[in-house]
Amino acid sequence: MFIIDAHLDLSMNAMEWNRDLRQSVEQIRSRETGMTDKPDRAKATVSLPALRAGNVGLVVATQIARYVAPGNPLPGWQSPEQAWAQTQAQLAWYQAMEEAGEMIQIRDLAGLEAHLSLWKDDAADSIKPIGYILSLEGADSLITLDHVERAYQYGLRAIGPAHYGPGRYAQGTDATGFMGAPGRALLKEMERLNIILDATHLCDDSFWEAMDHFHGPVWASHNNCRALVNHNRQFSDEQLRELIARDAVIGGALDAWMMVPNWVRGQSTPESTHCNLDVLIDHLDHICQLVGNANHVGLGTDLDGAFGKEQCPYDLETIADLQTIPSRLQKRGYSTVDIELIMHGNWLRFLRKAWQ
Question: Which pLDDT tens digit goes with each residue over 115-125?
């Protein structure tokens, strides 16, 4: 089945983890054997060949570079200008993959429909490019509001104003507080350009302020349910209902600490917490039960988003194993129509409406 994954940090893996994503997952792991600079070394799950093996033909792919003010202990860049430069290096990688025929950027409805037609073609004699919609995770790198339109011109189509901690335009995970005038100005410019608002990572205060001030298309690319894992990174039922009222789609994420309660970093394992792909179905099903249908959930896995096999479902070896999700949904009583909506149809409906 054709799959859309609404959140993958591909360029971060290429530029900061120094992974050649044209290689197989096995080759990437082999090259990292013995490396200890990051906890997920030799545990990757994503590569371009693995995406093709899993029929994951369209992804929302990120640029990401956080600005950290003095006193902020999070990793990041010491000025917005440095953060902007990092996103431009990431953009250059995507462009290099396009030149190599590995990827193709999707900017509008015509490009989307053409790409879908390409992937419907069963010809086995060519390597199909992975389609990607460019998204910015955390808006800190936008030096000024003028940079929003500059980014739109090179293909940026979604922005998540916050990431972890305090940000220049919004407050994110584990932070508190409102967006304020800079954030509201960002939302206004996004609305003018028809850039999708990604509500993921917004703290509660900033989330509700964004809902009050933004009137364009909204999605949550990679978010799970607070009712199942009680942490501010997840959405409350009240927030989920608000998103559903806005006709949003929420992408289920595969970071184990977001999937199962009481995860302890450095101690818990997917096996010890019984974290498998069926837990993802629990989160998706919770949202479906809230609204009474399957029209507002999809996949936004965040696989290899600074974690690997050590912190994702134990029954997922590579991203190609997303193909086991349809049968799991079927066992939960989901119809073929609903399964197709979850695997790709809801994201397509959202994009066709946003880009009409």
Answer: 999 999 765 55
Q: Check: CB of residue 90 under 8 Å from CB of residue 63.
A: yes
> Which domain range does residue 152 map to?
3-354
Side chain identity at 343, as an amino acid letter? M
| pLDDT above 70 coverage of the chain, percent | 99
**How many CA atoms does the CB half-sphere of 46 hold within 13 Å?**
26
Q: What is the CATH number of the domain that holds 107?
A: 3.20.20.140
Which tokens belong to 165? 């901690």
Residue pLDDT, tens place only, 229-265? 999 999 999 999 999 999 999 999 999 999 999 999 9
- For position 158, what pLDDT does the model report? 99
CB 135 within 8 A of CB 160: yes
Torsion of CA 8, 9, 15, 19, to 10 degrees: -50
Average pLDDT over every residue of 184-188:
98
- d(Cα 119, Cα 88) in Å, to the nearest integer? 29
Percent of the chain scored above 90 by pLDDT?
97
Tally of structural domains, the chain: 1
- Looking at residue 121, its pLDDT comes to 78
For residue 118, count CB atoms less than 10 angstroms from its CB and return exposed for 0-12, middle for 13-18, buried for 19 or more: middle
51-79: buried (b, 16+ CB within 10 Å) or exposed (e) per residue? Answer: bbbbbbbbbbbbbbbbbbeeeeeeebbee
51: CB partners within 8 A, 6+ apart: 5, 57, 59, 130, 319, 320
9-22 burial: b if 16+ Cβ within 10 Å, else e: bbbbbbbbbebebe
Residue-level pLDDT at 124? 54
**Residue 59 and residue 103 in contact, taking contact as beta carbons nearer than 8 Å:** no
| Token couple for 252 | 């289920």
